[in-house]
Write a sequence for this structure.
């Protein structure tokens, strides 16, 4: 057995996958793979663009240490979201969808240091913006989604599940 493989199990390896809009895959890979190599160097995570496609989204597999995977997700999201943001503002800066959530549920959607909102963005490929507390009207805060219709529907569903789950949890805390 070669010495290289023997050390591998000692390194804590995690695996994860995200879906990105298929039309952004070229941008993520870059010319002759330059961008994906840079992303792997910066994050320390192995990034594998698969040919699995689901509803216009391409699956990207990530493997490495947990914190490296998180770093890769942020870097990847930045690439394909910046791209979609700049494109959209060119044609129409309008949000694709807006809805209100109770002010006291904002934290659930945003997550600790924005972790949940990043997860929603990377899972759906949609820009998610939760209004700040001082913009609350009648205890409700506006959530703005920007992206394709399918992604927005998915993001809204995730957010609605998050805020309804928490209701169930508090009832059961006896």
């Amino acid at each position: 057995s070669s010495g290289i493989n023997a050390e591998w199990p000692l390194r804590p390896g995690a695996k994860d996958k995200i879906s990105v809009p298929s039309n952004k895959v070229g941008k993520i890979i870059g010319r002759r793979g330059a961008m994906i190599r840079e992303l792997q160097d910066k994050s320390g995570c192995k990034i594998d663009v698969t040919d699995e496609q689901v509803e216009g989204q391409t699956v990207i597999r990530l493997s490495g240490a947990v914190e490296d995977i998180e770093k890769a997700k942020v870097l990847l999201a930045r690439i394909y979201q910046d791209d979609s943001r700049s494109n959209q503002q060119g044609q129409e800066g309008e949000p694709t969808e807006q809805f209100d959530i109770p002010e006291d549920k904002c934290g659930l959607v945003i997550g600790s240091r924005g972790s949940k909102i990043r997860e929603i963005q990377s899972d759906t490929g949609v820009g998610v913006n939760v209004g700040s507390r001082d913009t609350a009207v009648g205890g409700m805060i506006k959530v703005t989604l920007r992206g394709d219709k399918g992604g927005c529907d998915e993001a809204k569903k995730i957010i609605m599940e998050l805020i309804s789950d928490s209701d169930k949890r508090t009832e059961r805390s006896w």
Remarks:
- The first strand starts at residue 14 and ends at 21.
- Residues 1-10, 84-93 have pLDDT under 50 and may be disordered.
- Residues 66-91 form the longest helix (26 residues).
- The radius of gyration is 18 Å.
